[in-house]
Each structure stands twice: as structure tokens, then as C-alpha cells.
Specification:
Elements: H1 70-95, H2 112-123, E1 135-137, E2 143-146, H3 159-178, H4 185-211, H5 220-228, H6 230-245, H7 253-273, H8 275-278, H9 287-320
Antiparallel strand pairs: 1-2
Helix pairs in contact: 3-4, 3-5, 3-6, 4-5, 4-9, 6-7, 6-9, 7-9
């Protein structure tokens, strides 16, 4: 049975918009003029921008104006002036030899005969005469500078004190090694102790000279040389005591005997050598001046005795201990 048709359906048509759309069409934005660089990992976050330059092209920004500050310019000029004056003072006083401290070369002007005679003098000063230093004659017949050690046995040198100090350091470490007590740090300990004693001794000696108003032409290296001669007696004491006692040190009667002798020899050597440094001659004609000078001379004699005997006894006893 056929179903009756009621009519054909109308054709389908898509709806056509009757009004123009007002929605803006989306488009890609134009590329920026300068894009910030990303990190090494591709992070989209911006990195810290470099500091902007100032009006004069200063990379430090507002802090760069410090250089153009009048106060900073004055300080810079003052620093340059001070540096220039210090350089001129150094050239005029040190490099040209006004400071006698730098004249160390004559103290090593020695010979083999001088070294042997000087060692004999330090250990056996009992019958030596005279003790005054010799001076070279100037062109006008006047006395000039002191003669070097090679020409004067009474002149202080730096060769014997330096070599005695080095020998003392090696001797102490050698004895410690023979006893099985050697350590690498022992070199520094022994050297620091010996040099520290010399420095302390020089400071005390200069302080005593200042308090007693002792002004002389003696150089600082002269005092260092005289303070270094004690190592000769210390070396002899340690060596003889170790050999005689079989390595038992300087505590026995043999060690004390040798120590007392070397101590007295060194003290007498210093007493007679420093006499012409710390005890100037009295040439005044005024009686009151002579009395005042005599009183000062007594004080200086006591100071010289205290330094040559009591101070040297303490230092040599400490250095002679194993």
C-alpha cells in the first residue's frame, strides 16, 4: 500500500546574516622593536637590564657624578701630591744613602784571618788591647770614617753573627735528631726564638740609650752585630757539653763550667767594646758640667754592666738549653 504524498518539502538553505558583525578580527601583533633576551634555558622572563648611562655617557649612572665632585678632585690632587713628595723623599734619603741602615755591605767586608782572630777575641778577650776602633785619615789630616772589619779587629761585623745564628739553628735541630725528637717545625721554632731574643735585646738597648740621653754615631747594625756575638759562646757551650756528657745536655757540671766561662768572656767583650759607644769622654772645663757628666757617666756605667752581664746571662742560659 503506497502512502499518499502530501507535497514536496522545501529546499534547505543556510542562514545568511542580515547585519555586519562588529567583532574585531583577531590578528597577530607586530613584532616588537627590541625583544628582551631570554635566559640560557629559554625562560620567557626578562633578564636584568644593564644600567642606563648618565647624561655624559657614564656607565655608573648617578653615582658616576662622584668623580666630577670638587671634593673628590681635591682629595685626588692631595693624594697625588703626597705620593710625589714621598717618592722624592725616598729617592733623596734612602736611595742616595743618607740612611746608614742600608749600608750593610761594609759589615761583610771580612777576610779569613779576620774571622779567626775575631773568634779568638770573642772567646779569649782577657789580654786584648786596645779596644778603640780605628778611623781612616781624611784628605785634610782629620779622622774620617771607621775602617772596615778586614782592616780593624775591633770593628763589628755581620758575618760572624749571621753564620753563628745559622749554625746554632742547625746544631739544635741536629741534637734533637740524635735524640729522636726531630720535627720539621723545630727549624722555625728555634729560629723564631733566637731572632726574637735579638730583637727584644735591641729594643731594650735602644730604650736604655734613649732614657739615659745617650747620643752617639753608632749605627743600628753595630748594636745588632754586638748582640749576635753571644751565639759563638752558646755554640761552644752546647757542642762541648754534648760531647763531654754523651748527649745528656748542659745540665751537668761540665756544661755549667763551659757556660760560665763563655758567658764571662762574652760579657767582658761587650763591656769593653761598648764602652766607647755608651761612655763618651768628658772634655768639659766647667766644674758643674763635669759633675753632671760624672753622674750621667755613672748611670751609663751601671746600664752597661746590667746589659753586659745580667741580660746576657739570661739570654745565653735560655739559648744554651737543649
Amino acid at each position: 500500500m503506497q502512502r499518499p504524498s502530501y507535497g514536496q518539502s522545501p529546499p534547505l538553505h543556510h542562514p545568511v546574516p542580515q547585519h555586519v558583525s562588529t567583532v574585531p578580527q583577531l590578528r597577530s601583533p607586530p613584532p616588537p622593536v627590541s625583544q628582551p633576551s631570554t635566559g640560557y634555558d629559554g625562560s620567557p622572563y626578562q633578564q636584568q637590564q644593564p644600567p642606563q648611562q648618565g647624561p655624559a655617557g657614564n656607565v655608573f649612572g648617578q653615582y658616576g657624578n662622584f668623580i666630577s665632585d670638587p671634593t673628590a678632585q681635591i682629595a685626588s690632587q692631595f693624594g697625588q701630591t703626597a705620593f710625589r713628595q714621598g717618592q722624592e723623599y725616598l729617592e733623596q734619603n734612602v736611595l742616595k744613602g743618607r740612611f746608614k741602615f742600608w749600608e750593610i755591605k761594609p759589615y761583610f767586608n771580612v777576610t779569613n784571618s779576620y774571622v779567626l782572630n775575631k773568634l779568638f777575641l770573642v772567646l779569649f778577650p782577657w789580654r786584648h788591647k786596645p779596644w778603640s776602633r780605628k778611623q781612616a785619615m781624611g784628605p785634610n789630616g782629620q779622622e774620617g770614617l771607621y775602617l772596615p772589619p778586614r782592616d780593624d779587629i775591633n770593628s763589628p761585623d755581620m758575618y760572624i753573627p749571621v753564620m753563628s745564628l745559622v749554625t746554632y739553628i742547625f746544631l739544635q735541630t741536629l741534637i734533637a735528631g740524635l735524640r729522636g725528637e726531630f720535627q720539621p717545625e723545630l727549624f722555625g721554632i728555634v729560629a723564631t726564638t733566637a731572632i726574637g731574643m735579638v730583637i727584644f735585646e735591641i729594643i731594650g738597648l735602644k730604650l736604655g740609650c734613649y732614657l739615659l740621653s745617650i747620643s752617639n754615631e753608632s749605627q743600628l747594625l753595630d748594636l745588632i752585630a754586638y748582640s749576635g756575638y753571644k751565639f759563638v759562646g752558646v755554640i761552644v757551650t752546647i757542642a762541648v757539653a754534648e760531647i763531654a756528657t754523651g748527649g745528656k745536655g748542659t745540665g751537668g757540671w761540665i756544661g755549667w763550667t763551659v757556660f760560665i766561662y763563655t758567658f764571662l768572656a762574652n760579657s767582658l767583650f761587650l763591656m769593653r767594646s761598648l764602652k766607647y759607644v755608651l761612655l763618651p769622654e768628658n772634655n768639659g772645663d766647667n766644674r758643674s758640667m763635669q759633675i753632671d757628666t760624672r753622674a750621667k757617666r755613672n748611670q751609663r756605667t751601671q746600664f752597661l754592666f746590667f746589659y753586659s752581664y745580667l741580660v746576657q746571662f739570661g739570654f745565653m742560659w735560655i739559648l744554651s738549653r737543649p
